[in-house]
Amino acid sequence: MRCPFCAHDDSQVKDSRPSEDNTSIRRRRQCERCGARFTTFERVQLREIMVVKSGHGGELRREPFDRAKIDQSVALACRKRPVTQEQRDQLVSGIQRQIETLGDAEVETRTIGEMVMEGLRQLDSVAYIRFASVYRDFTEARDFEEFASTVREMGEL
């Protein structure tokens, strides 16, 4: 594993343990060159999954599934909300498991977006609305108001 501090290719595992949600292995490593310590996570990947994206003009693009993109979106939606890192990790791990168990080699961004929205809806209503406003591309305040009133009627606000 490459050291994030000095870019040396060799590091030694000092400690390994399951993550709190048992979906990954947390490893503490030490660089053999500079001695810096860092943490890595090892997760099971059942198969290579491609994400199908719709581009401008209707063309389709495919790129490998990247868990970090979901994690980044969820973190942004949950910013300054009472949502712990552990809750976010559990949400992202659950979405990744759902995608992997679909059994398909390809998944559309729309499907992933709906999974994220559903997870955030159950986790935090403000984070849910934040994500939805970007995901559904609200262009006017009225779009936001209509969506928020729908959420309010469902008793989630």
Helix content: 40-55%
Structural class: alpha+beta
- Number of DSSP-assigned strands: 6
* SS field, number of helical segments: 5
What proportion of the residues form beta strands (DSSP E)? 15-25%
Strand order of the largest sheet: 1-2-3
Apparent shape: globular
Average per-residue pLDDT, rounded, comes to 87
Cα(first) to Cα(last) distance is 45 Å
Q: How many strands, which pairing sense, and closed or not: the largest β-sheet? A: 3 strands, antiparallel
- Estimate nothing, just give the exact number of structural domains: 2
The value of Rg in angstroms is 19 Å
Question: H/E element string?
Answer: EEEEEHHEHHH
Uncertain segments of ≥5 residues (pLDDT<50)? none
Give a topology summary.
Elements: E1 11-18, E2 24-31, E3 37-43, E4 50-54, E5 60-64, H1 67-77, H2 85-101, E6 106-108, H3 109-123, H4 125-135, H5 141-153
Parallel strand pairs: 4-6
Antiparallel strand pairs: 1-2, 2-3, 4-5
Task: Describe this structure as you would to a colleague.
By secondary structure, this protein is of the alpha+beta class. It has 2 domains: 11-43; 50-153, no CATH class. Helices cover 43% and strands 23% of the residues. The protein has helices at residues 67-77, 85-101, 109-123, 125-135, 141-153; strands at residues 11-18, 24-31, 37-43, 50-54, 60-64, 106-108. Strands 1-2-3 form a 3-stranded antiparallel sheet, with no helix packed on it. It starts with 10 loop residues before the first strand and ends with a helix. The model has no long low-confidence stretch (mean pLDDT 87).
